[in-house]
Fold this protein.
Amino acid sequence: MKLEARIAALAAMKPTQVKAEWHKAHGVKPPRIAASLLARALAHDLQCAAHGGLAERVREQLAGAGVARAAPAPKLAPGTQLVREWGGTSHHVLTEEKGRCTYKGKSFASLSAVARHITGAHWSGPRFFGVKP
């Protein structure tokens, strides 16, 4: 069967059939993800087998790339005052030791906790207060 026909057959399979194909191809139970994603991964495997996969140069680049990590939030000296305008109100936060913060006389564990208190939603505190690089 031609490659295109095999890929089309994968796309037309029922979830139980896709999972059986995964087990046949990899020798293990499939991960608990949508059958459509398993079918796409199997199609990728077929394409790699037919066309040789990634070029050596690309594999080396990917191996050397590492995992991108977010830059750590800058360290703020205790006593630093942060101000953020939100909802028509200026919110003033004072940094304390060990990352704690004071807002309206109440101590919070982090800037994120203050941002959550102010907005009612999960925020990155450093991003909310504009101190994230």
Notes: The two ends are 53 Å apart (CA to CA). Residues 3-65 form one domain. The longest strand covers residues 89-95. The CA atoms of residues 2 and 109 lie 60 Å apart.
